[in-house]
Write a structure and sequence with these properties.
Blueprint (H helix, E strand, L loop, with lengths): L8 E6 L5 H13 L3 E6 L1 H11 L6 H8 L3 H4 L2 E5 L16 E7 L1 H8 L6 H12 L2 E6 L6 H12 L3 E2 L13 H15 L18
Parallel strand pairs: 1-2, 1-4, 2-3, 4-5, 5-6
Helix pairs in contact: 1-8, 5-7
């Protein structure tokens, strides 16, 4: 009998919605939790990484290597081109625990809700649905119109976890990173993976 490795694989998607920092912190947190990450970024996602994070995105693999030193070389993090519809994560036979799209644009969300899988991002998400694996979507848009809400309801009915990018303030965040960590922590709770990214309600160790 062959035993599966204790280290799990997760797919992380970063789209063109504002909030690329959420996805980057999620990758770091998954690696810190001894998980492996397969990353896919849409064209618009690369644009956001350039605009919001100041990345030089003309050489994408080098940009990932610079942001996550040593992780690609060690095999802990693998970048897949969004156009590579034949990548490992496009097949249900490739074992992963699930996928988190963080942040998720309304365009990507709509494609997934309607079964349109014409790139690796949406194909990987479709695989999660057909294989009954975890799919978590972090939409980042405001305000929301009826089509957005209907698409989210469609996915929720299929068991997809919808975790909107909504900050909380009860734990006294002091920085943007505190607020990012809160949302990443809420995602990790759903996987579930242990973390200490934010103070939970009712935790009296640090007071309220």
């Amino acid at each position: 009998m062959v035993e599966l490795a204790s280290r799990k694989r997760w797919v992380v998607g970063i789209t063109g919605a504002s909030g690329a920092l959420y996805g980057l912190q999620l990758i770091r947190s998954l690696i810190e939790a001894d998980q492996d990450v397969h990353l896919v970024v849409t064209e618009a996602g690369w644009r956001v990484l350039k605009e919001e994070q100041g990345w030089e995105t003309s050489k994408r693999q080098q940009a990932i290597d610079a942001a996550f030193p040593g992780l690609v070389e060690s095999g802990r993090l693998k970048l897949h081109p969004n156009a590579d519809i034949g990548a490992s994560i496009a097949s249900g036979s490739f074992r992963v625990e699930g996928m988190i799209i963080m942040p998720c644009s309304m365009g990507t969300l709509a494609s997934i809700a309607h079964g349109i899988s014409d790139d690796l991002m949406t194909r990987a998400a479709d695989v999660m649905l057909k294989e009954g694996r975890k799919l978590l979507i972090v939409p980042r848009e405001t305000p929301l119109h009826a089509i957005h809400l209907e698409n989210m309801l469609t996915l929720a009915k299929l068991g997809v976890k919808i975790i909107p990018a909504m900050p909380a303030f009860y734990y006294g965040p002091q920085t943007i990173h505190d607020m990012v960590n809160f949302l990443v922590g809420k995602v990790l709770d759903q996987l579930p993976l242990d973390h200490d990214l934010y103070r939970r309600w009712g935790d009296e160790q640090h007071g309220v």
